[in-house]
Amino acid sequence: MTAAVAIAACVIAMAPADTLIHRPSGPDAGPPPGEPTEIRFPVISDERAGNYPCSVAIGFLDADTIPDLAVANYGSNSVSVLLGNGDGTFQARREFPAAFLPYTVAIGDLNRDGRADLAVASEGSGQVTELLGDGKGGFGERRDLDVGGGAYSVAIGDLDKDGNADLVASNLNQNRVTVLLGRGDGTFRPGGSYATAHGPRSATIADLDLDGSPDLAVACFNSNAVSVLLGNGDGTFRRRRDHAAGQSPYSVQCGWIDGDPWPDLAVSCLASNSVSIFLGTGNGAFRRRREVMTAAQPYGLAVVDLNGDGRADLATADLATSTITVAAGKGDGGFLRGIQLATGRYPQCIAVGDLNQDGAPDLVTANTASNTVRIFLNRGKGARP
Ligand SMILES: [Ca+2]
Ligand SMILES: [Ca+2]
Ligand SMILES: [Ca+2]
Ligand SMILES: [Ca+2]
């Protein structure tokens, strides 16, 4: 582990890690007095990954209840697995082979044996690689599933509500997403493909209209739009609805950003250095967007309550400035001005999990040019002193 220091390449000022305090002021000051408003990361450390790590996911990869990491290494055609020690540190990484140019890794139980498996979208081969877990942090022989060209991302969810995990991959060059429906034994059958706006970069699965069936939101890089496809509950999807976002949308996440029960969407837009916020208004519809400014080129995005005030906050991985931006949510759809912290060089992904098991969600970035992941341990509500 190495202590975090400001990196020479960063072009913006960094606050020391332990002195990040949001101080709302003015009439539109956010949470009422007495509510916690701080977001602090007192412990920051790095772990080695493979070559050009693009994506990191957090899950339980061995038999304990301590979160572990899976990292897709674009430059070494592999996945790194780092088993957690429970204090925010990790055991030495293990490497498992993926297909050509793996870009995104997701964690889920693909064969219903109670052990976490990996799905890895490989852009170079147009495949999603399935790696079945042995429940001890090891993974068996890989199985490559064809999903079509430009397979930059994969997400796992039960799209047809049969209890078996299904997959949705984005096909950047073909302006569609491809669905694979799980049989529950680790095999999949084709579930069709669906048109999106131009340049689908990543997709998220969430029930956006609260009808009990999973829906899709897809960040479409080349069309400055997010496509919403409402699910029918049988693994099929209705025709898309597009919503104008900022420039070059990259990641999309669902969360509850304002006070109503309808799910909202956040989309990182790397050419406008912002996160577009879409507040849900019911039945899968969204209000006109708002923009939250970040540092330069936000790729990765997380929507999570970091300070324990019950309101969703934002965290982005800003590639060009090698930072994360953290912005505290006001609970009404607005956010306080973001604060930046240094990452390794050129972070492309950010993931959330409680890595040291203190009740506060922590952050991890995959730093493509440093071949590391950086771990930000949060000191939020529920954290031990
Ligand atoms: Ca499994
Ligand atoms: Ca299913
Ligand atoms: Ca739905
Ligand atoms: Ca924690």
Summing up helix and strand content along with how strands pair, one would put the structural category as mainly beta
Bound molecules: calcium ion
Number of strands: 30
Helix content range: under 10%
Strand order of the largest sheet: 1-30-29-28
Proportion of beta-strand residues: 35-45%
Uncertain spans: 1-36
Principal-axis shape? globular
- On the 0 to 100 scale, the average pLDDT is 90
Structure annotation, total helices: 0
Radius of gyration, rounded? 19 Å
User: From N to C, what is the helix and strand string?
Assistant: EEEEEEEEEEEEEEEEEEEEEEEEEEEEEE
Largest sheet: 4 strands, antiparallel
Q: What gap, in angstroms, lies between the N and C termini?
A: 21 Å
Task: Summarize the structure in short.
The chain is mainly beta. It has strands at residues 43-48, 53-59, 68-73, 78-82, 94-97, 102-108, 117-122, 127-131, 143-146, 151-157, 166-171, 176-182, 188-195, 200-206, 215-220, 225-229, 241-244, 249-255, 264-269, 274-278, 280-282, 285-286, 290-293, 298-304, 313-318, 323-327, 339-342, 347-353, 362-367, 372-377.
